[in-house]
Design goal:
This protein has one domain. It has three helices and ten strands, in the order βββαβββββββαα.
Length: 145
């Protein structure tokens, strides 16, 4: 079982079973009371589904509910595309050119609300993953034991 911080909501933590993909939301306070260590990574919600990335000794594991993909630099890549008419984004994760994970989600609010939020990846975890998969350093950052 691992615990991940929310990319979007300060008070939420995801309890995620890395073997089965079973998950539940827990409050930040509950995690702090239990003295549980959070795993390096992040998650977000799309409706009642959970998506994210967490660190392992082998590198980043990307997940969507019970689908898990071990990322490899140069092989695993994310892509976000905006439908300008509907303002709906589509996130796709490819591994060895094969689509392995995808979702649609509404545009994330917040860009420009403070001086630090100047890029889509500042407010949108999927954009952060897509940008991250372009960088060898991203994969190295998620290689933790």
């Amino acid at each position: 079982m691992i615990y991940l911080r929310s990319y979007d909501t300060y008070k939420e933590t995801l309890e995620y079973d890395v073997d089965t993909g079973a998950s539940r939301l827990v409050s930040r306070e509950e995690v702090e009371r239990a003295g549980v260590q959070r795993t390096f990574g992040m998650f977000t919600r799309v409706g009642d589904r959970f998506f994210g990335v967490y660190a392992t000794p082998e590198g980043p594991v990307f997940f969507g509910d019970d689908i898990r993909v071990l990322g490899r630099f140069g092989v695993t890549r994310g892509h976000v595309e905006l439908d300008k008419a509907t303002r709906i984004h589509r996130f796709a994760l490819f591994d060895d050119s094969r689509l392995v994970l995808s979702t649609h989600y509404p545009e994330r609010e917040g860009l420009g609300t403070n001086p630090y939020d100047t890029e889509p990846e500042d407010v949108d975890m999927f954009a952060a993953i897509a940008k991250g998969t372009e960088s060898r350093q991203f994969f190295e950052n998620y290689r933790r034991g």
